[in-house]
Fold:
Amino acid sequence: MSIRGDTLRFKLTAVLPALLLFSIIYLVSIGFMLTTSVFKWDSLYIEGFVGIRNYVRMFADRVESPTFYRAVLNNLSWSSIAAFVHIPLAVLTAIILAGNCRGWKVYRVILFLPHVISITAFAVIYKQVFNPSFGLLRGLFGALGIASLRDVNWLFDPAWAWPSIIVTWVFHVGFFAVIVMADIVSIPTELYESAQIDGASAARRAVSITLPLVRNTVGTCVILDITGGLKYFEGLYLMTNGGPNYRTETLALYLFQKLQLLQNSYANAIGVALLALGLFVVLVANRAFRIGRSAY
Amino acid sequence: MGRKAQTSTRSPMSFLVGALRQAYLLFFAAITAFPLVWVVISSFKTNRSILGSALSLPDTLHFENYATAATMTKVIVPFTNSIIVTTGAVALNLFLSFAAAFAIARFPSRWLRTVALIFSLGVLIPINSAILPIKLIMTRLGLGNSLPGLIILYAILGLPIGVLVLRSFLLSVPVAIDESARIDGTGWWTILFRIIMPVSQSGIATVAIWQAIMAWNEFLFAILLISSEANRTLQIAIRFFLGMFFFDYGALFAMLVIVIVPIVLVFVIFQERVIAGLTAGAIKG
Amino acid sequence: MKRKALLVLVAIACLAAVAFGQSGKEVQLRFLSLQVGVHPEAKWFEQTVASFNTQYKGKIRIVVDGVAGDQAAWEKLRTDAAADTMPDLLMVKADRSEFNVLAQSGRVVDLKPFIAKDAALKAKLNDAGALATYTDDNGRLLGIPYAKAYVGIYYNKDLFRKAGLSGFPTTWDGFLAASEKLKKSGVAPISLMTGENAWTSMLMLANFIGTSNAGMKWLATKPEAQDFSAAVFVDAVAKLQTLLEDYTTPDAVGAGYGVAANNFLQGQTAMIANGPWMIGSFSDPKSAPAGFEPKVGYALAPGNGVIAMENIAYGSGSKPSDKQAASFEFLKYLTRDDVYSAYLSTGGAAPGFKTDMSKVNYPRINKEFVPIAVAAKYKYTIFPNAVKPAVVDAMNQLLPELAAGRLSPAEFAGKCADISASN
Structure:
């Protein structure tokens, strides 16, 4: 048995099952999405070819395009916050937790909890937290005596709606913190020890040693966070359904809403737009973090 | 192990840093835990007093909320179903992803790089828009309305991320690690499971956690594919329970607690083993 | 020896399969239903299905796929329609936004041929208007009309008395004055909602539109031809805005049906527009506090109007012919006098076909209300029947703006027109 033949056989048997199953579901989905977006498909049956009509509607229709652009803006806002606030917070948390401070095990469990509890349950909880009649925030601000904040209808106030949505996830750093932390603890201690001997402070060590070495993982986390955010809609649907007046709309939610109205081909056009946006973002992140090359 | 040792002398600077660290962690823990604590406390109040004021403590512990919630919502079956589906999906996904990711990371070749690119595209696809064709495929294959069907579907849905993340982890495993085994003529599959797997525990654990969370929280396809009450997963059950309790917030919160507590318990017990695997991790060099 | 044992095992297995196959002659029907959990008609539903299963044991068995909550149940049904996995039994609502989708799917059984073969049932179904409601554009009858409803406004007589009000206002000005008094007495006048399908708000909107001749005509117009610039509509929106801005609870914006209903049941608000199906909740200890039911009154809308709507029918989505026959058996079962009397007595609906009314024991509220409803000057349908589904969907987005004064009634109407044109 030649070594090369053996290797080739392994490559095939290792990759093909996954590739095949992936194709059945994913490639069919993309193909379907792309194809039907240029057909007329309202309600239940696919009718004739209509060319780029759906895309024209998405980009230029007087009624629909403002919603579309708003959704794109919100998606970009979400992605930026994910990359520049959420993940950095997670990395910082990971560094602190890895620093063996008091009670880190307990903190790690608490911080991880939101990811373990279902999205639906959390959306319901947050809807109650933000309830303007008897919610938690109303109680808090009432007790603190800040009447102006007490009376805010958080999820339906034009100024507060989007920030409120952001608040429901940006402080949940547990998941990515744990991932990055796993990478941190696999850094050989010798690197730190020699730096410590040279007199580097904890912060300096973190910046010069830890950060560069977890680059790959952090980059992957950024991609995961952003793409997860692009696809997320269930909680949004339960909390605001994109309101008030589409201010908390995102592409994934917009897609879902159009599916509800059975405007299926238009929804798939939105899906194509979402795909394009995601591709762009992932390529940028890939470049920025130079993923694929070893960090050492 | 990579963890910085505490210095024994506590200079004012290190004390301040330590205090800042605690404050930081406390802040995040509070924001994370506060809504949950509030729900638990509120679950013991009557509907009336919940509508009345948010922060008040219950006058007495109204356990009848739990009685109402427990009798109206049968959580055991959906809970078990979710456990079955999640563990199955994670196991299947890990097996497929790990092998594929290793092949991609280990062997530089043009077609494998293309495969990698194809998989990473999968991360982006908003799968919501394809619910219909997927439902058709699953039904035609006889996998509709069945737990094994969900397991297979979830495993596939998690392939892009599984392959992507494992590839990233495996790239930092030195190529030389299997040299001696290759010289001995050991087959690749053996190398994969005997040599590579033990040192990629952190990567595997990461993907396992991610897939478990995804499978546990997934409800779009669950609602779509499952039509008999016996096969419902927890997420579907929660959604339907919501419709039952809009008149009684006390029972609603009790229901949420009933649903959340077992999950948290399972996680707390389980996380020691998982995190131990994560942090036992590879020591390089 | 081993081979023999194997053969015996196989033989036993075959016999077992045949035996199970025999009992498998029982036809199983999946019933997608929202009348479960705390739904006011849940008990009736449960008993009816159970007694049917007992009576038809071995021949037909109904398995309930319970989905609590109207919205959730509709979402499931719509997905089933799109994916061609229709339940065998389902509720067909007269609400045009739902009915049109079901009709278009072509996957709901046309009951006409079945009814034609059954003389007794045919004689019962004598309400031409009701039958027309559930007949689609291709002449297919999609459901057995089951319930009609007169929809008014529930009010809490106790809270009214505490605010110094003696009866329910009969004019818009009177309504405003009464709301002021209620507000001063410390209670939010009316339960409204902007979330989900904005149901109670839409009912009030219909009430404001429909209480005039022009308004009745407006609500009877087909969605494709609807004119949102009509003064009747803009005025009604202005009235709704007044209520949203000043006379409802803070959580009305963003609220779903549960919040709105809960507010009324717990005495946070004094009024709620809703149909007779809610009556059961007033005496249900899980929903309302003890002694709530006697406090509730049911009144016509100010301006002497009432919503008269076809409410629900029951139909089938079965494909194979044996299941269709079985489903039809159940639909027929639903029209039995005893079953139907129990239904009407629970929810206070008006009958959709000829039945023996002697055993019907209407709840107090309905007994008092139906005569005045029948005599109301203006009768009209619900708002979702007069506009496209996309407009109903947009209420989520637009009502909060209206409530906050960021949209004027004219602008609101303009947006409705735009959305209607573009969808």
